[in-house]
Amino acid sequence: MDKSFRKRNKATSATSQNPESPNSDLAPSGDPASAIIDVPAVEVPELTEQEQHDRLFLERKVERAFFEAGKALAELRDRRLYRSTHRTFEEYCRDRFGHSRQQSNYLIAAAGVYENLTTNGCQILPTSERQVRPLVALTVEEQLTCWQSAVKEAGGKVPSGRIVKDVVQRIMERTRVPNTYELGEVCQILAKSNPELRGKGGCWAIVSQVNDFSCTVRLWNGELTVGVQHLKSFEYLPDECQQMQKMCDRINRVYSRGLEETVKNLLQSLGKLNRPYLTAVEEKLLSLIETEYRVTDGG
């Protein structure tokens, strides 16, 4: 008989008889495949009162992370604390945080929604910006209604952004009134904390296309599609609307040229007029700019 075989057989036999063997926890069984392993129970100690306090504190910090970021960005923007290193807030956000101006605006707007929900006593609060993004363009009352419905749909837990978006669409479709705006009508843009309308609040706009729940409008510096909840008619007479159309054409032709910052600021002030005409001084200034940049009625 092969000696190496005998040695392996003895070693196996010795192991099976050794009470200190790693397999000694196996219950005796004729079939190794059906052996029962005894696993000692591991007792998990309960959290102490201090640990419970620490857990809650840290959870709150995670939940409020996007809120704190939005509030900080708003202060950096409003106080222009970026001015020593960057010309614009957009450049600052891109270089310092690696995200666009729009991303910053979303965080800032989301912080406002979070604050509205806490002020109105919501117990279940959002934990990320994407969860509240669909609520940004709504009124405070609409934000509260939609968020509470989304929480209920999520089984009393924090809802995902998809659930919130679905709830907002369903509720808004039920409550929206038909679009009654007409082509050529002059309206005022109401930003209502919508980050996409930042800087355009208060501007006049001329309706160029009527959709189901929105309008495409012409502003002093371009075209934009806006929900009807962000528009308010000036209720101008037809002749006044035509005057505004001519004014819009003139300003747009000038704006299409490369302009100095001072000229842009003047055009922006004209783009926020709440009357359908230019004063004598405003007419002279606009005519002077048209002459300076060689802008004619033909463009």
**What is the subunit arrangement here?**
single chain
What global shape is seen?
Answer: elongated
Secondary-structure-based class equals alpha+beta
Tally of alpha and pi helices: 11
Protein name: Site-specific DNA-cytosine methylase
Organism: Dendronalium phyllosphericum CENA369
SSE layout and pairing:
Blueprint: H1 3-17, H2 49-63, H3 65-78, H4 89-97, H5 101-119, H6 129-132, H7 140-153, H8 161-175, E1 186-189, E2 204-210, E3 214-219, E4 222-227, E5 231-233, H9 238-255, H10 261-270, H11 280-292
Antiparallel strand pairs: 1-2, 1-5, 2-3, 3-4
Helix pairs in contact: 3-5, 7-8
Describe the structure.
It is a single chain. A five-stranded antiparallel sheet has the order 4-3-2-1-5, covered by helices on one side. It starts with a helix and ends in a 7-residue tail after the last helix. The radius of gyration is 33 Å and the shape is elongated. The chain folds into two domains: 118 residues; 122 residues, no CATH class. The longest helix is centred in the middle third of the chain and has 19 residues. 49% of the residues lie in helices and 9% in strands. Strand 2 and strand 3 form a beta hairpin. The N terminus is likely disordered. The chain has eleven helices and five strands; from the N terminus they run ααααααααβββββααα. With 299 residues, the protein is an alpha+beta fold.
